[in-house]
Structure to design on (443 residues):
């Protein structure tokens, strides 16, 4: 086989493959600084491996293969978010013993479920992503005090604002922002984590994040 | 020669007339006094998709640009910049759905200060979308060694229905709303060469709504 022929075949194969699917990769996304007052407590944050390296692939209607590579975007989001939600956060690795750290609570997170939809499935111009995170909150004794599934959703149109040709990437970012907003609003209400703050049992003053959540619930 | 020029002129006029086949109706419903001072600005937002709203991003951008355009254009804060600066209180999940949620929102730490810094006087919430509601005809194309061509006639109708609710952040109340109801029919006749006569329905809804919003916000009915 001549070099020209090989090149032509390779080019044809590439064109054929690229026409049968798409790949999306999140490249170091940034999240805005949230307007919240942190809860005064020391939290240990342990992220599962999939938060640092998440990759998902699915055949769409048996015609296209879509892959979404979120890399460490989820870990970055949780680290930034918790850094704003609590006065002190310590990141723990899988092998670290929480008892070795002077923390008020340990939060473990992982990705429970991931789904997406593309225009070929829905018949409109929208790309959508659903992410379900699982948050488990432990007290210093190692007992689970909260187990919360955070279901987040993001939707973006092809060619929409900020999406360019990367509507799926934008949908993933919006889903992560949705999760962050949900956690700011409801983490304390769902898990009661602020009860573990030192001396908080006798303190009638609620943290700002808790107040925000309560006010929103009341308004609703 | 003159007859040929006449034919061309008639054909051109016909195309222009047909491509402008759009009917539009703009209405406003005023609930309070409006007006805007120098240094004050507006933000255009889409109602949350969590509530089922399908307002297109490009429509929102179009209204933002149309409101800011011209010598009497308003000062428009890009909605993404506004949403980021107030994160997470204007995310699709957390943004207030009614004006009665405004006072609680403004009492949150840093929110009122951030809005004042940006000089935002009005938030305009867009709701609605453009949909194809009818269509028909038949068009077929073929190509061969001697050439190709199309024959037939197709048409379709798009309806653009949008509502803009204007919230006054000074009084923390609704100032009213402006609606755009635009219908446009596009045609595609083909006799060897297809001639698209496209009705720019969404564009007409964008320009019409923006013009009406400018009048609504700037004009004080008491003067």
């Amino acid at each position: 086989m001549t070099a020209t022929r090989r090149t032509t075949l390779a080019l044809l194969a590439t064109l054929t493959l690229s026409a049968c699917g798409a790949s999306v990769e999140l490249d170091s996304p940034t999240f805005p600084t949230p307007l919240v007052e942190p809860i005064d407590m020391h939290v240990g944050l342990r992220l599962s491996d999939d938060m640092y390296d998440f990759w998902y692939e699915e055949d769409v209607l048996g015609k296209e293969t879509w892959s979404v590579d979120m890399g460490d975007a989820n870990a970055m989001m949780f680290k930034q978010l918790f850094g704003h939600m609590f006065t002190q956060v310590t990141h723990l690795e899988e092998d670290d013993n929480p008892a070795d750290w002077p923390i008020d609570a340990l939060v473990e997170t992982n990705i429970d479920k991931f789904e997406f939809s593309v225009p070929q499935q829905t018949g409109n111009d929208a790309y959508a992503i659903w992410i379900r995170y699982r948050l488990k909150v432990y007290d210093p004794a190692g007992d689970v005090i909260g187990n919360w599934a955070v279901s987040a959703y993001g939707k973006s149109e092809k060619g929409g604002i900020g999406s360019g040709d990367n509507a799926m990437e934008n949908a993933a970012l919006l889903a992560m922002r949705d999760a962050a907003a949900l956690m700011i609003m409801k983490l304390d209400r769902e898990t009661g984590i602020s009860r573990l703050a030192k001396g908080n049992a006798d303190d009638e003053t609620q943290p700002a994040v808790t107040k925000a959540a309560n006010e929103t619930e009341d308004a609703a | 020669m003159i007859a040929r020029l006449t034919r061309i002129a008639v054909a051109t006029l016909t195309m222009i007339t047909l491509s402008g086949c759009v009917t539009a109706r703009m209405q406003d419903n005023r609930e309070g006094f409006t007006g805007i001072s120098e240094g004050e600005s507006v933000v255009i937002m889409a109602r949350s998709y969590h509530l089922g709203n399908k307002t297109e991003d490009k429509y929102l951008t179009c209204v933002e640009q149309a409101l800011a355009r011209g010598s009497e254009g308003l000062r428009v804060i890009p909605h993404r910049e506004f949403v980021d600066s107030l994160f997470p209180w204007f995310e699709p999940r957390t943004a207030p759905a009614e004006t009665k949620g405004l006072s609680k929102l403004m009492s949150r730490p840093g929110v009122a200060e951030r809005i004042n810094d940006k000089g935002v006087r009005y938030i305009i919430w867009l709701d609605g979308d453009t949909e194809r509601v009818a269509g028909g005809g038949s068009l077929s194309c073929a190509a061969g060694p001697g050439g190709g061509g199309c024959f037939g006639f197709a048409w379709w109708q798009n309806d653009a229905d949008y509502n803009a609710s204007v919230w006054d952040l000074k009084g923390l109340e609704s100032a009213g709303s402006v609606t755009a109801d635009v219908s446009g029919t596009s045609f595609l006749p083909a006799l060897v060469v297809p001639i698209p006569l496209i009705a720019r329905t969404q564009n007409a809804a964008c320009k019409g709504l923006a013009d009406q919003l400018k009048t609504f916000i700037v004009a004080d009915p008491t003067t």
